[in-house]
Specification:
It is a single chain. The protein is an alpha/beta fold. The chain contains 9 helices and 15 strands. The strands form 3 sheets. Strands 1, 2, 3, 4, 5 and 11 form a 6-stranded mixed beta sheet that branches. Strands 8-7-9-6-10 form a 5-stranded mixed beta sheet. It has a 4-stranded antiparallel beta sheet with strand order 13-14-12-15, sandwiched between helices. The protein is elongated. The N and C termini lie far apart (about 55 Å).
Length: about 300
């Protein structure tokens, strides 16, 4: 496998900044791709060891493009996650004034994060989406748009200047990025982990989602993301993307996944990996849900079966 990481490009994206926080990037070639799909396809085709892409932001939730690519196609697995605080700069060509701006561009995920700022400062400006925030900066450099919302660090790369900085509608906004590779054995548990899965129901029936969530709830597993995505099989047909606290090697998580495998039409395991927002042991398990208690309960059942209770 090539010693390279694909990422959502071009150069100067928030994705690249987040990716460079991983120590192993010092020994990898970082290759920008034009879209999330093309970066993930590079991994599937064996052109890259892994891909680094955005998957969630704290303003709008899951990045649907990434979720849909992980739901469909040949399986991939998440190995790492990175959280990056996000603020935008309004990048323009030198000499451009606020009154000159008639068109602005950025990645679609940026729009809900700057919507109120635009309403207050650029109420009549036309928005057009770009493949990434850095690509929006490139389009401004080429003269196709008047301004772009991007990281201030992208200005020098594309010969632009920041007309405004520190732009954000929500304080402490963050975007979550994941390192995705081909399926393999998950990393060892750290004590502060996350497990991601996709679930498909066997049929649509009252309480169906409750049944799925009950497999987690009865074992004291906290959910960190729950997002439905259309399957393409018709109106009302959805699968569910879920992030849950814990590691597949934890007894409570393993038993929950076994329960889901029994009742779901399909379960796609997307990986167990260290959480980026907590240190080891940050959330204690609920009473009755530790590995030791699961082992003790299994031993009790075995003794009952042997008449040793």
């Amino acid at each position: 496998m090539p010693a390279s990481y694909a990422y959502l490009g071009p150069e100067g994206t928030f994705t690249e900044v987040a990716l460079r926080t991983l120590p192993e990037t010092a020994t990898r070639e970082l290759v920008p791709y034009v879209s999330v799909q093309s970066a993930l396809d590079a991994v599937r085709a064996g052109e890259a060891e892994a891909a680094f892409v955005p998957i969630e932001n704290s303003v709008e939730g899951g990045i649907t493009t990434t979720l849909d690519e992980l739901v469909a196609g040949s399986p991939l697995m998440i190995y790492r996650e990175v959280l990056l605080s996000i603020t935008f700069a309004l990048l323009v060509r030198p000499g451009t004034k606020m009154s000159d701006i008639k068109t602005v561009t950025a990645h679609p995920a940026a729009q809900p994060q700057v919507r109120n700022w635009m309403k207050a400062h650029l109420p009549d400006v036309h928005w057009e989406s770009a493949a990434s925030n850095a690509d929006g900066a490139r389009l401004v450099q080429e003269g196709r748009y008047d301004a772009a919302f991007a990281g201030e660090f992208a200005a020098a790369r594309y010969g632009l200047v920041p007309l405004e900085t520190g732009i954000h509608d929500a304080e402490n906004a963050q975007t979550r990025f994941v390192l995705v590779g081909r399926p393999a054995r998950p990393a060892a548990p750290t004590g502060a982990d996350k497990t991601s899965v996709v679930l498909w129901q066997r049929d649509d029936h009252p309480g169906g989602l409750r049944d799925l969530l009950g497999e987690f709830a009865t074992r004291g597993i906290n959910l960190m993301l729950l997002q439905s995505r259309p399957t393409g099989a018709g109106i009302g047909n959805y699968c569910f993307c879920i992030d849950a606290e814990g590691h597949i090697s934890d007894r409570r998580v393993a038993e929950a996944l076994m329960g889901l495998k029994r009742i779901c039409l399909q379960v796609r395991f997307l990986g167990s990996y260290p959480r980026a927002d907590a240190g080891p042991g940050s959330r204690p398990t609920l009473p009755g849900t530790s590995d030791e208690e699961f082992v003790a309960a299994a031993d009790w059942v075995a003794r009952c079966q042997d008449g040793r209770f």
